[in-house]
Design goal:
With 664 residues, this protein is of the alpha/beta class. The chain folds into three domains: 296 residues, ANL, N-terminal domain (Rossmann fold, 3-Layer(aba) Sandwich); 143 residues, Rossmann fold; 122 residues, ANL, C-terminal domain (GMP Synthetase, Chain A, domain 3), CATH 3.30.300. The chain is built from 21 helices and 31 strands. Strands 5-4-17-16-18-19-20 form a seven-stranded mixed sheet, with helices on both faces. A five-stranded parallel sheet has the order 7-6-8-11-12, with helices on both faces. The protein starts with 21 loop residues before the first helix and ends in a 6-residue tail after the last helix. The relative contact order is 0.09. The structure holds ligand 6R9. GO terms for molecular function: acetate-CoA ligase activity; AMP binding; ATP binding; metal ion binding. Its EC number is 6.2.1.1.
Length: 664
């Protein structure tokens, strides 16, 4: 039987046949949030008696050894640490799977919809348990231990979730890399986290196209060397022809076929890392945000319950890929911790046609739907096609995340897609925050198109000016969070100093989000976008620094600067200004070659939209590229370039304007 091998003080078993309902009982005992007054009351409690509030929320999951210390946090840069429930022991996988067996063994955990409409699977909690146990046994048989890193580079198939949960079950740290990232990007991540194993598929299938995942892994490992990764687990998804390295490559189905379908799950400390997820910053290489087991799960579970007003009979669908934080928290951990039915979709919104989302909603009677504004804009681009063939009358709530949603798009989402019957919940948060931070609660918050409105329980946002002074009342400034919350990232993998410098140094004593925001007279927040050099292309975070370094690695490019420009579907698109190496003539072939180069270096998500060749870039006398000017030119908005007095060579700007690629 599955049992706790490290039961701690109580020694109780929380998995397998002896599932307890203690967490579920705690959920049932929580006060309802059905009105603005309920929200105000609970918000006050959550901030004035924060530790009591977070202890109540933490009791909604099952602990192998209960915690006594709720919070141990310091934001002081010389001793920055964030710890929650640190003396508690738990197993995240047991919380997401085993503890539901007593009451939900036959309930559907994952409703999978493949890229082809006929391709579907339904996986019950009982089946999920068997699959995860087999894989956990298989990973251990391969020598994966607690604390080892496992990179997951997979399509959106149930085995990707099995892989995440199997890692969690044995205390291994997963790092999911989005399938749209290139072999090089994958290699960087494998090296940075020192992965011991890569789990992948022969090829992914998306929008009718094949994505050569295994070939990318081969190329990545050729670059990363063999120091760390000694095994590649390969799921047969498409039957594509692949190269095979005997002694290293293992078929997923062969490994799990040999394993028992019970697995004894050990507890880990609440602060034990659950996963590392890479995201882009304003400088340098992507950073691996490290999330922990206990606090992260408490936060993912609580936000899922409140923000979506989750009920037992809901069918919930979040369209995010598991390669992003939204997929981690709201395809996998949040829903499964609550025993929900989570829909998982392998495809894209416009294949075979733009009606796909609506058709899937009808087919599975989806009641809660969570997507990105870029997807809504894609649907809006041909609204008739997007709405054809579906009624979407099962929906009761619509949500979005990832980028600002403008009021027109919000209204279409609500009125047309949601038939005017569903609240639109605009959720602001980040890879770093682990879960939703600012969002309306369906029954308790007055909605405003384009505003993420109010902070979640226990979250204290503020706006500050450049001097870190807190602004009061209606204001516009940098968005910071004053105190800690259980779901926040604990560090950057292998670089704690960078974590401190990036998030806790700009505004001392506060967490700096990198976003700007406005607060209106009602106290509602409107996120205005990044205040640093991070782009948001189709809801994907990309650092201009990464794109620049990929661009200048092309032998014909001497220098480059990258900015974003507004794009009707993607939100923001990539504009490269590049200076060719002396003697090289820039032409359309070179442009195409450079675009393909950047795409290959970073992956399809980073495909450039514009390349403007220029003999020079606008720089200050100290040599700093004036991106502000480049952004304006890319946006075809150069009437007011602002202060250009510090330009070393003012003539460059005239030339850039004359050669601009975006013209109204
Ligand atoms: C969850 C996620 C984080 C950045 C964030 C901000 C932008 C996310 C938003 C939003 C406006 C929203 N962002 N949600 N902007 N309104 N509701 O997307 O995480 O990939 O780390 O991106 O996305 O700029 O700082 P991540």
């Amino acid at each position: 039987m599955a049992e706790a091998s490290q039961g701690g003080k109580t020694g109780q078993s929380l998995s397998g046949q002896v599932a307890t309902t203690s967490g579920q009982a705690a959920v049932a005992a929580l006060p309802a949030v059905d009105s603005p007054q309920d929200y105000e009351r609970l918000y006050r409690h959550s901030t004035c008696e924060g530790e009591a509030f977070w202890a109540e929320q933490a009791r909604c999951i099952d602990w192998l050894r209960p915690f006594e210390q709720v919070k141990n946090v310091s934001y002081a840069t010389e001793d920055l640490h964030i710890r929650w429930y640190e003396d508690g022991l738990l197993n995240v996988c047991v919380n997401c799977v085993d503890r539901h067996l007593a009451t939900r063994r036959d309930k559907t955990a994952i409703l999978w919809q493949g890229d082809a409409p006929a391709d579907t699977r339904s996986i019950s909690y009982g089946e999920l348990h068997t699959q995860v146990c087999r894989l956990a046994n298989g990973l251990q048989a391969q020598g994966i231990d607690s604390g080892d890193r496992v990179v997951i580079y997979m399509p959106m198939v149930p085995e990707a979730v099995f892989a995440m949960l199997a890692c969690a079950r044995i205390g291994a740290v997963h790092s999911v890399v989005f399938g749209g990232f290139s072999a090089n990007a994958l290699a960087d991540r494998i090296i940075d986290c020192g992965a011991k194993m890569v789990i992948t598929a022969d090829a992914g299938v998306r929008g009718g196209k094949s994505i050569p995942l295994k070939a990318n892994v081969d190329a990545a490992l050729a670059r990363a060397g063999t120091e760390c990764v000694d095994a590649v687990l390969v799921l047969e998804r498409s039957g594509a022809d692949i190269a095979w390295q005997a002694g290293r490559d293992i078929w997923y189905h062969e490994l799990v076929a040999r394993q028992a379908d019970r697995h004894s799950a050990a507890g880990v400390g609440a602060e034990h890392p659950l996963f590392v997820l890479y995201t882009s910053g304003s400088t340098g290489k992507p950073k691996g945000l490290q999330h922990c087991s206990g606090g992260y799960l408490v936060y993912a579970a609580a936000t899922f319950r409140y923000v979506f007003d989750y009920r037992e009979d809901d069918v919930y669908w979040c369209t995010a890929d598991i390669g992003w934080i939204t997929g981690h928290s709201y395809v996998v951990y949040g829903p499964l911790a609550n025993g929900a039915t989570t829909v998982m979709f392998e495809g894209v919104p416009n294949y075979p046609d733009l009606g796909r989302f609506g058709q899937i909603i009808d087919r599975y009677r989806v009641s809660l739907f969570y997507t990105a504004p870029t997807a809504v804009r894609t649907l809006m681009s041909d609204a008739d096609a997007a709405l054809a063939g579906s009624g979407r009358d099962s929906l009761r709530l619509l949500a979005c995340a990832g980028e600002p949603i403008n009021p027109g798009v919000w209204r279409w989402y609500s009125d047309a897609f949601g038939n005017g019957r569903c609240p639109v919940i605009d959720t602001w948060w980040q890879t770093e925050t682990g879960g939703v931070m600012i969002a309306p609660l369906p029954k308790a918050t007055a909605l405003k198109p384009g505003s993420a409105t109010r902070p979640f329980f226990g979250i204290e946002p503020q706006l500050v000016d450049a001097n870190s002074d807190i602004l009061t009342g209606a204001a516009d400034g940098h968005l910071v969070i004053l105190d800690a919350w259980p779901g926040q990232a604990r560090t950057i993998w292998g670089d704690h100093q960078r974590f401190i410098d990036t998030y806790f140094s700009t505004h001392p004593g506060m967490y700096f989000t990198g976003d700007g925001a406005r607060r209106d007279a009602d106290g509602d927040y409107w996120i205005t976008g990044r205040v640093d050099d991070v782009l948001n292309v189709s809801g994907h975070r990309l650092g201009t620094a990464e794109i620049e370094s990929a661009t200048v690695s092309h032998p014909a490019v001497a220098e480059a600067a990258v900015v974003g420009f507004p794009h009707p579907i993607k939100g923001e698109a990539i504009y490269i200004y590049a200076t060719p190496v002396a003697g090289i003539e820039a032409n359309t072939e070179l442009t195409a070659e450079l675009c393909a180069w950047v795409r290959k270096e970073l992956g399809p998500v980073a495909t450039p939209d514009r390349v403007q060749w220029t003999p020079g870039l606008p720089k200050t006398r100290s040599g700093k590229i004036m991106r502000r000017i480049l952004r304006k030119i890319a946006a075809d908005d150069f009437a007011s370039l602002g202060d250009t007095s510090t330009l070393a060579e003012p003539g460059v700007v005239e030339e850039l304007i004359a050669g601009r690629l975006n013209r109204a």
